[in-house]
Amino acid sequence: MMATTTNTTAIDIADPTFLKCFQNHHFSINWITFSPNSQYLCSASDDNNAMLWCLDDEQRTSNTCYKFVGHKDSVTSVAMTDNFIISASKDCTARLWRINQDDISNCSSDSIQYRCHKSPINSVHINVDGSQFCSASDDQTIKLWSTTCANKLLCTLSGGHSNWIRHARYSKLNSNLLSSCGDDGNICIWDIRSKEAAIRLTSKRRSTHFLGIQWHPTCEYIISSSSSDCLLRIWDLRYEKTIQFYQLHNGIVSSSDFHPNGNYLISSSMDQTCKIIDVLEGRNLFTLKAHTGPVNCAQFSPDGQYFATAGQDHVILLWQSNLNTQHCNNNNDDVIIDDNDDDDDDIQSICFDPNQQMNKSFNVTKNDKKSDDIVSDDHHPLKLSNSISILKCILQQLETMTDSILHIDQRLTLLEEKFQSLSTTT
């Protein structure tokens, strides 16, 4: 298989290196995820199976894998910890599979079945400590489940979406937050304790279907979204606005994922390509053209050394990322930052600091009037930025306004002088 890359700005960053093609699935691969130690990869496919692949250097030369058989319809999504795998299916169930990473051939063939929804499940994700997982479904609900008690439903999140929910993800930095997106063109940020959507983000394009969403790994208020309108968006939850959007693909953008250092974003598309973007400088670094069909998913490994892509050509491609922290100064021809409300969302050129985070206390339950920590909606932590950041923004705006006023004053002075000169002459 030929794998070509197009590096639009390669100076300090080496091209990704193709390592291995995994091919044991017989139908389209819908989702892939890495294990926390980056030694294994799990995949979900339309062949009704999930598979666990070994990425160890000594075994990577062969297709060492273990097949999880049990679902009666397409497996749409998988999530993974060191000890178990969660798979979701169009058969309206999720399954928990115990694994032995020391020897994947000894993985249990038995699973705990969660009879979750009345409609197909599109996404599952496990929270940071592995105590629960969420499932998002065509029935317009998100359900939270315990991983320690078989088939124990913790709560149901509903009312945020009016159409199929395509994706749901726990925040990596705040255990009380969960994001979701769907075919109704909405992105919801949920407070798990109050079971309410604290923030709703909407595209002005009514036909937009959001297919995937990801949290920034080091910046709590930044998320990315992939959508059917061929755009890749980056949102700032403080302003509840899109701060960047990239029109790089010629087809539906199926997924996106941040590099663990937060400086890069990878996207996959129905146009058979993947893109690696420098989000700090707002430019496309690489275009990967290796698949022979639409690409359904692209994911970085937790250590950032690898990424994998998978799609409708039934194969998984493993790459070495070769990404570093050095950046080059180049003209930006790929990122769209515009203030034209008629074009898309309210796009603002707002820079973000990946090392800056929102207030992590977030101890307020919106409807719990008995709580001693209650604050008003005007002081909701999701709507507050770091005070230093706000002051910096205000100071910058004041400086700009001051400069503008000085220029206007100078022009008025010149006009007055000209007017007086003309009056005197007359």
From TrEMBL:
Query: Which SUPFAM superfamilies does the entry mention?
Result: WD40 repeat-like
SMART domains tied to this protein = WD40 (SM00320)
Which residues form the WD repeats?
A: 22-63, 68-107, 114-146, 158-200, 246-287, 288-320
Q: Which key words are in the record?
A: Repeat, WD repeat
Q: Can you tell which superkingdom this protein's organism belongs to?
A: Eukaryota
Q: Which PANTHER family match?
A: POC1 CENTRIOLAR PROTEIN HOMOLOG, WD REPEAT-CONTAINING PROTEIN 55
Q: Which family does it belong to?
A: Belongs to the WD repeat POC1 family.
The entry's protein name is POC1 centriolar protein A
* The organism of origin for this protein: Dermatophagoides pteronyssinus
* Upper taxonomic lineage: Eukaryota, Metazoa, Ecdysozoa, Arthropoda, Chelicerata
What's the name of its gene?
POC1A
